[in-house]
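re: ur question from earlier - yeah i can do the single chain one, its not a big deal. heres the input i used so u can compare w yours
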Amino acid sequence: MTTKGLKLAICTVFFLFAFNAGAQSEDAVRIEWEDLMPKLSIPQDPVIELPTDLQVAFENLQYWLTLTSQDKLSMNRDDINELAKVADEARALFKRKGVDFDKLYKRFNDRQKTIEQINRTTVKKYNSRPVSIAGYLLPLEFDKRGVNEFLLVPFVGACIHVPPPPINQTIFVRMRKRFKFKDLFDPVWVTGRIKNTHVQKQLTLVDGTGKVDSGYTLTGEKITPYTPPSE
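and the output i got, formated as C-alpha cells:
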C-alpha cells in the first residue's frame, strides 16, 4: 500500500469511528415532563394553614381586591355594595383573630408569582438534543393520510374544557412523516430533536377554536404506542 493509500485508509477509519461515536452520543434521551420545568421551589400556600372561617374570609376579600374597575362597571350598584360589605366583614374577622391579612396576602401573591415564573420558563438542558417523551396528541390538522403537526401535552383532555397547560408543558411537534393515530386518548412516545422555541398555534376542538402557546418545538422522527418505562 502506498503512503497516500495508507493515509486515506487511516482517515477513513478515523471518520467512521468519529461518526459512530457521534451517532451513539446522539441517542435520544428519555425525559419526563417535569424535566422541562425549572427547578424552583414553591413556597407553601399560606391560606391552607388557616382555619376554615378565615379561608372563606380570605377568598371573599381576595375576590374584592382583584375586581377591576371594568368589572365593577359591568355590575349593578347593589351587588357592588354587597361585595364591599362582605370584604369589610372578612377584614374585620382577620383583625379579631389577630391575623395580619396584608402580610398574608403578600405571601400569597409572592407564591403566585413564583408559580407563574415556573410556568413561563423553559429549560435549556435539552435544547437541540434528541429526546423521547410520552404524552397525548392534540392534532392541529385532520387529514385521512395522517397528522403532520400536533401539540404534545402531559395529560389527557388538556385544552378540552380546561385551560391549556403552561408553555413549558406544551410541545409543538412537526413530524417528518405523517402519523396515523387511532385515538386521542391513547398516550404515545414521541422521539425527535427538541428546541427551546416559543410558538403559538390555533387549536380547533369540538367546543371551539383557541390559541395555544408552546415553549418547545420538536422535529418528530418516530411515534410509538406508550409502554411504561422499564425500571
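Residues 46-120 form one domain. not sure if urs matches, ping me
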